[in-house]
Amino acid sequence: MKLLLAFFCTLVLPQFAGATELVVNGSFEDETSTTENNGNWGYYSTCKYSGWTFPNGSGGFSKVNTPWIANQTLPDSGKWVTFLQSSKSGNGGAISQDVTIPAIAFYELSFYACGRKETQYHGQQLTVSLDSLVVTNIVVSGSTLKKYTCQFISNKAGTCQLKFQSESTSDKGSSIDCVS
Q1: Is 9 exposed, middle or buried (0-12, 13-18, 19+ CB in 10 A)?
Q2: Are 83 and 69 in contact (CB under 8 A)?
Q3: d(CA 132, CA 41)
Q4: Is the pTM of this model over 0.85?
């Protein structure tokens, strides 16, 4: 997520270049454990990525060409993505990070997302929020990572929780990478 120094009503593209990065480890490459399933993927009740937590106690990590993500080159040329799984019981996975918002201002958030490798698991609904402010709602489909970008005006300065939350109430899954 980047701070854009722009007036509320004016979006000036050259100002994006000088933006300040507010997200830590948005590529999920700084993992603290890769021991499950031969180091290729795993479910966790506590997050293994530096800077991130699983607030609902469920989520995971994966390399490409696993049940979670099709074989593809990741946008950052890294090895890892995070995945969120929702269940038929409505227990949606989530991942979050506390970020420091320097000022009430205009911001841009970008990330990549895709559905699980098997098409029957596509269509997961994700809500991205900053505390109580909903930044975007998307329906993730397709098994190739797609870039999503959204602009918003923060409603407060200080520490805020950036959260990716599954809203699906059926067995769906998606992978997320390159959050900035």
Answers
A1: exposed
A2: yes
A3: 31
A4: no
Query: How far apart, in Å, are the Cα atoms of 66 and each of 69, 126, 145, 156?
Result: 6, 21, 14, 40
Tokens 């509320």 map to which residue? Answer: 8
So what's the pLDDT on residue 159?
A: 96
pLDDT band at 18 (very low <50, low <70, confident <90, very high): low
**Token digits of residue 131:** 């505390």
Amino acid at 115: G
- Which of 23, 16, 19 lies closest to 130 in space, CA to CA? 23
pLDDT at 71 over 70: yes
Please provide the average confidence, as pLDDT, over all residues in the chain.
77
Whether residue 140 contacts residue 123, with contact meaning beta carbons closer than 8 Å, is answered with yes
> Cβ(177)–Cβ(165) under 8 Å?
no
DSSP 71: S
> Do residues 50 and 60 lie in contact, with contact meaning Cβ atoms separated by under 8 Å?
no
**Per-position b or e across 126-150, b if 16+ CB within 10 A of its CB:** bbbbbeeeebeebebeebebeebee
Considering only the C-alpha atoms of the chain, give the largest distance between any 2 of them, rounded to a whole number of Å.
50
**3-class secondary structure, 88:** coil
How many secondary structure helices (H) and strands (E) does the chain include?
0, 12
